[in-house]
Each structure stands twice: as C-alpha cells, then as structure tokens.
C-alpha cells in the first residue's frame, strides 16, 4: 500500500492544482457569433455579422485605456479600426473556390448577449457569381485562446424561398481548415447529419469540459459516491462508533446509485435546456449563473456534513434544472429560429452527456480504488469539497453582485 501512496498523492495534487486554476475559466467560454446571409438575386452578395465579446477584444487589444476595469463606448469607438482589422483578417469567405471581396462595412455597434456586451461588425461580401457552395476560414484568437470557438449560422432562407431548408449551423475551431456550406438543394439532402450537427456535438463536449462550475458540480457529486455515510450514534459489531464516511463494499449498489444521480442530472438539464432554447422559459442570465454557483456550494458542503446522504438523485434533479438554463445560453445567443434549433439542440445535448460520462469514466475507477484510504476521505473528499465550496462561493458573490473578486 505504501508504494502506491506517492502515485495517489501526485494524482490528487494534480486535481487540486486544476481546481486552483478554475477561477480562470469559471465563467462562460469564449464564443463569437458569425452569421452569413446569402442575398437573393444574381449579384452573388453575402451579408456578414460577427459578434465578438468585448472582454476578448480587451484582452487582445487592451481597449481599457484608463485601466479602470470598465469599458466605455468611447474607448471601444476609438479603437474600432483596430477591431475591424483584427476581425477582417480572422474571417475569410470564398464561393465555389473563388475568394469573395468586401464591398462595404457597417457602422460600429454593440449588442448584449448572455455573457456580456459584444462588438457587432458588419460587412457585405461580393462573390463572382451566386454561390453554389460557401467556404469559410476562421482564425480569430487562434494564437491566444485555444478555448475560443466561432458559432456560425449560414442562412439561405431568402435565396431558397419559403420551402428551403432554413439555416445551417456549425462550430468553427480557429485554424487554417475550411468549412463548407452547400446550396439549399444539397443541404436539403444532408439534413441534420452534416458538419453542423457534429460540430454542436463537439461544442457540447467542449462546454462541459471547460465549464468549471458544471465540472465541479459533477466532481462534488462523485466524491462521496464510493463511500457510505454512517450517522452519529451508530455502533459497529466491534463496539466502536462508526460515525462519518466509510468505504462502500457494495460495488453494484454504488454503481446503481451513481447511475440514478447522473441520469437525474441528465434528464433535468435536458428539460430546461430545451425550454430555454425555445424561449418557453427564459430566466435572467445573472440569476441562472448565480444559482448554478449556489448549487455547487450546497453539494460540496453536503459532503462535509450530509443532510442528504442517501438517495441524492432528487436533489441532483432540482439542481440539474438550473444547470440546463446555463447550457442553453450558447444556442440562444446563436439567434436560430425554432425550425433551425432541433439539430443543434440534439447535438449539443448529446455532447454534454458524452462530456460528463467521460469525467465519470475517468474519475470513478480511481475513487473506487482509493476509497478506503485516509488520503481519499480527508484529502479528496473533505479538503476537496472545502476547496470546491470556497471557489463556488466566490463565483456566487461575483455573479450575484456583479463584482470581480478574483483577477484573472
């Protein structure tokens, strides 16, 4: 057993370092929203709208001239040529293998998304002929932010008529690769199995893996799954008191209980993700993000002095409803109409499930193997839960009161 301790210690030290790094990625991931509208007629024109988060532009271009931590319209407006230059080189459009050229630019504009204010950049592209296929290359923040993604919508509706297939959606990973979008006739045959759907599967995996609040919520649920809580006053057959967490000996029961917990979270966030994406229920983002942080705090504290030790799935279901509203922000910010949401919704939700299953598959065997050690109960469960609760408590204050306590 002693020969295993250094390995165990290094593993949990690595996990602790990951938790300490969590404030840097505790908020919504870096996303930009790109919309190409193919205009009807023989001119071969495409309208473009690109929404980039001001926080990302400030990191890249240092827009905050007075350094007070708050961007004004004047500060953004003065640097608009630099913003246009950055975006202009980052997004390139071709039609049928021939580069399109920029005809004109729109006026400076800001818009509000679920994760804050975005700069809105508009351009009109002119292609040599009405496009049969669009090819896009996206390199925004490719060198500075590996987590960044561009969420693109290509709208052929006006060009295709009322019976056309509607918008196509995809996710751009910044880099040199081209992404292709066919004319409506070809798109109609490809349906939801095209690159847009698989792109949203990847986006769902991406968001669950880099979303610290969702990951820590799952981790806080997972840590006690391999243990059994024995309340104060219980005495073992040896005559010794047995209060506290002890190692589970029922692998089948542990697996069944964890399956209920994960399934409850899945069903709950799928319900609210769908309701929010279709605007049936749309709570304010600030409330949602605050409640998500609060759910992490409560689950982590429950590991230290359980109020709910057995049958945790109903509590998980309630908290999962809140997390679903957080997942919906990406799809809502894309601005899809209801008829264009089904494939992205299914793909994104599948990606979220794959991401959380990957977390469970990675950590559960390690937790089961080390569950009987004092290092697991005191280091992983107690110290880990305290650290999770502390981090989530900071996020709760930041989100509820709109303040920045942790500089990143």
Automatic annotation (TrEMBL):
- Domain of life, per UniProt, equals Bacteria
Give the UniProt keywords, A-Z. Answer: Membrane, Signal, Transmembrane, Transmembrane helix
Q: Where is the signal peptide?
A: 1-21
Q: Which residues cross the membrane?
A: 215-237, 258-278, 284-301, 313-331, 343-368, 380-397
Q: Does the keyword Transport apply?
A: no
Q: Is Nucleotide-binding among the key words of this record?
A: no
Q: What is this protein called?
A: HupE/UreJ family protein
